[in-house]
Design goal:
By secondary structure, the protein is an all-alpha fold. It is built from six helices and no strands.
Length: about 130
Amino acid sequence: MKFIGSVVVIGGIAYALGLFLPWWAIVPGAFAGTLLFRQKLLPAFLSGFFGIFLLWTGLAAWIDFTNSGVLSARIAEMLPLKGNTAALLGITGVTGGLLGGLSALSAHFFVTPGRRRGDPQNYYKSKR
């Protein structure tokens, strides 16, 4: 339940920020959403990935539907996709998902303390 709530919150924050800011606003959105729901390493990455993946794929599909697929068909022909608009939607979603997942992973590492290798002041002295 925590995972699904995190995916919904990350998608909602990213969508709200995307209304007023450029496309990269998904990164602080996924970061903030992960700070609200503290999770372990893999669930944090996956919630960021799926939150942004679903958001970007849904928005790209909606834009594709509203203009009858004209723009996405032209872009898919320019790229080596042979006019496959579904592949273009998938690539769009995976690109956004990776950005969201890495941002969520950064938030996880931000709040999780790292492992210490002993006293930081004497670390290099003990290696001699």
